[in-house]
Amino acid sequence: MTKAKKSLVCWALLSPFLLVVLFPYATMLSTSLKQKDEIFTFHRTWLPRELYLGNFAELIFEKGFGRALANSLAISVGATVLSLAVAIPAAYALTRMRVPGKGALTNYLLITQMISPIVLIVGLFRMFAYFGLVNSLLSVIIAHSAFFMAFAVWMLQSYFATIPKDLEEAAWIDGAGRFSAFIRVFLPLCLPGIVVTAIFTFVNSWNEYAMSLTLLRQVTQQTAPVQIAFLTGTLYQIEWHLIMAATLLASVPVAIVFASIQRYLIGGMALGGVK
Amino acid sequence: MPGIEKTAPRRALSAGRSSKMGLPGPAFALILIAPCLLLSVAVIGYPIFDVIRMSLFDVSRTGVVREFSGLANFAKAFADPVFLQAARQTVIWTVCVVAGTLLVSVPIALILNEDFYGRTIARTIVLLPWAISLAMTAVVWRYVVNGDFGTLNMTLAALGLPFENYPWLADARMAFLIEILIGILVSVPFTVTILLGGLTSIPESLYEASAIDGAASTRSFYYITLPLLWPFMQIALVLNVIYVFNSFPIIWIMTNGGPANRTDILITYVYKQAFAFGKLGNAAAGSMVMFAILLVFAIVYLFLTRAQGAKNDD
Amino acid sequence: MASINLTNIRKQYGAVTIIDDVSIAIEDREFVVLVGPSGCGKSTLLRMIAGLETISAGTIAIDGEVVNDIGPQRRDLAMVFQTYALYPHMTTAQNIGFPLKLRGASQDEIGRSVAEVANTLHLDALLDRQPRALSGGQRQRVAMGRAMVREPRAFLFDEPLSNLDAKLRHHMRIELRQLHKSLGATSIYVTHDQIEAMTMADRIVVMNRGKVEQVGTPLELFDKPANVFVAGFLGSPTINLGNATLAAQDGSATLEFHAGSGPIDLANVPPSPHKEVVAGVRPQHLEVVSPEGVKLTGTVDLVEHTGCETNVILSVGSEKWTVQSRTRQHLTQGENVGLVFDPTNLHLFAADTKERIRW
């Protein structure tokens, strides 16, 4: 079988699944470019009447979706920074030093990764309420960091382990202190790994729903996914054209960023998972 | 393994000297780990404790913990027909989504491991659902299958099929089925990623050797691919069970457990008990049941990965 | 430059002893090679000197100053790693200049020193390249340059040539040796390759299972190995060793190999005759002769021609022996031959302690 022929077969076999994956995107794109009357009509078509961008403008300027995006951005950036700030030293210690109780610690982190925040949501809510942090973006930043950090530690660990220890030792012998060797030699080398981990954490935080829904109870603080879901709960007539525009805005940039790191996930993730 | 435990204290002793030498000892390592551990224990550990406490005490609607009530909350939960129904539906939900995911993912991973034109694009598209918030996926699909305005009926009608105004989510069975299908769709990317990682770790030389030995490609699939992929499938299976069991947004947003609790699973049941009905004790008891089940899965996972790790060390 | 003294050094991981009571005195400007089979502790010992491994007991002193508690940063040693450990994100010039930069040298100073070192090592044209764009030999040179640039108290080498191909290894051996002559730097060099040890060292330290087996100049070790291990480790092809019985009476002595030989007359008698011995003859000291009237005989298994030497592998009883000869041997497989040697070239070791019997 030639490669061309094989390609045809492969694409044909994949096409049903690809169709299902792309169907919602087509829906988002098509609907978000339509005007309201085009949706609530009997004779509907895939192609919008014209390339109407008014939905996006209305969403941002009238419905306050811009603020939801800003909230999401603030939370995701905050959670990424916080979880990396605690995960990098931890991952460094776990890969490079003798840590008493290392096995127990790794198992603990692994188990925390498997507990859904929603199982603990009642306790989580009460704790943040006790500190007066409900309805503060900070609570979600902290909660996201705690839940996504274990994964970050684990991803970073597998990257750190690929940097030969020799290099730091050479730096020490060359006269660098432990910190200086870390900054000048170790960090520049594992930067790609840190970037991938950061992006992954960012995307996870951006997409998280349940904790944001529960901890932020005012409309002005809603994150993008929460606000989108909230808009579908309107009693009267659901404004699908606006909602689809919102999902498009909130998902496409993230999807592009995510796609950029996908090749790092394959292999890295499986290896880490098995080892 | 036992040997390492035996030697550990002495190791720590000799490493203790090193702190003077500029090679930081275990104390410094613990300082580096402390923030991570602290954050985790505070935000995950404390709520666990709190939920355990609430499950064993009488808790008021406003969350005041009153007197110890033993297993009364659990008894109440198990006496609640909705809880039992949700539990039953959780099993259906988890089994169907996980089985469906593996069934779809294995062939997709095998295809994506082949060398063909546009493979990178195909991989990217397959992984796409992973990049998007489950909440937003649920919202979009809720619109897609909307009876009156949805794009699914629009497309089916355009193809001449009689689905002009079919209300997909009105019937509980159909709604649950759709939710299961979407559950499969969003679980495939992660599963394919793990399986692809497994497939790329199989050295090409094995296939070449078996080809030289005269094995046909179907035979090399059974004797090489499948056995080597099996550990990855096990891990994908257990992780998926955990994730799917925990999955909240799809059902919450598409049907909110309805109609008539017929699509509720434990996690939506717990959430409703806590935040809609204010039955915190009930919710905590439900959470504990889920927590116990998750712990069992987590231990199975640890067992699987350790066994695998040990094999890799040989 | 500096002298380095190791006194009663020990290294333990729990119950496992990696280094067992090692004492070595390395003089200023000396080139010492630590050699031994893999796992003998030679690399660990080197890393302890560098400050990369902790010491369980004993002292390491550089120029009389005990450095046990001083970190690798402040020991002022340089090390060339087996993997070269070049910083992948830095160019050749940056790699070589890194130790100076850490010491706060000015850009001018760094530039001058780097240029000088690069000139010595013929790296001038490669200064702007990153390690991944260099060949194995070039990387090796950059690693050397980084070690040389700051004139350390001593050089430590951890199997620096083992990643090079045979030809380049030979070339670098000579270059390193010349470099040592011109710099006169105290050097400790770890290798598992006995040829490197023999050709480069002022003194060799043979290690086995965490202990020092023998210390001495290459020829001392070759001519008078202190025990069976050293005899077997140095020399290529490997020395022929056989269990034998030593009989001494009335000022004359005979040796009878268990593998099968008549009593061989020895020129002089060991002072304290051990009855049971391990006897060793290097392949170079054996000669193949016609079997008639010879006490030690064997059957030819294989003849190897390397061009200038011929190796004859024979069965002596149940043992395999090798004879190396400068003349071409025309022997056929299965042929019965006699073996003779000059008794002054015979090495005798006590069968129980495996220690050399001096005579």
UniProtKB/TrEMBL annotation, chain A:
KW Transport (keyword) present: yes
Topology in membrane: Multi-pass membrane protein
Pfam families: BPD_transp_1
Chief location category: membrane
Sequence intervals crossing the membrane: 73-95, 107-131, 137-160, 181-203, 240-261
UniProt domain ABC transmembrane type-1: residue ranges: 69-261
CDD domains from the UniProt entry: TM_PBP2
Keywords for the protein's UniProt record, in alphabetical order: Cell membrane, Membrane, Transmembrane, Transmembrane helix, Transport
Subcellular localization, as worded in the UniProt entry: Cell membrane
Lineage: superkingdom: Bacteria
Xref: PANTHER family: INNER MEMBRANE ABC TRANSPORTER PERMEASE PROTEIN YCJP, MALTOSE TRANSPORT SYSTEM PERMEASE-RELATED
Family designation: Belongs to the binding-protein-dependent transport system permease family.
Protein name, entry field: Carbohydrate ABC transporter permease
Organism: Aminobacter carboxidus
From TrEMBL, chain C:
Highest taxon of source: Bacteria
Keyword ATP-binding (UniProt): yes
Family annotation (SUPFAM superfamilies): MOP-like, P-loop containing nucleoside triphosphate hydrolases
PROSITE patterns per record: ABC_TRANSPORTER_1 (PS00211), ABC_TRANSPORTER_2 (PS50893)
Keywords linked to the UniProt accession: ATP-binding, Nucleotide-binding, Transport
Gene Ontology molecular function terms on file: ATP binding
Keyword Transmembrane assigned: no
SMART domains tied to this protein: AAA
UniProt cross-references to InterPro entries, sorted A to Z: AAA+_ATPase, ABC_transporter-like_ATP-bd, ABC_transporter-like_CS, ABC_transpr_MalK-like, ABC_transpr_MalK/UgpC-like, Mo/tungstate-bd_C_term_dom, NA-bd_OB-fold, P-loop_NTPase
Annotated ABC transporter domain residues: 4-234
Pfam families linked to this entry: ABC_tran, TOBE_2
Family membership: Belongs to the ABC transporter superfamily.
PANTHER family from the UniProt entry: MALTODEXTRIN IMPORT ATP-BINDING PROTEIN MSMX, OSMOPROTECTIVE COMPOUNDS UPTAKE ATP-BINDING PROTEIN GGTA
Name by which UniProt lists this protein: Sn-glycerol-3-phosphate ABC transporter ATP-binding protein UgpC
Organism, scientific name: Aminobacter carboxidus
Organism ancestry: Bacteria, Pseudomonadati, Pseudomonadota, Alphaproteobacteria, Hyphomicrobiales
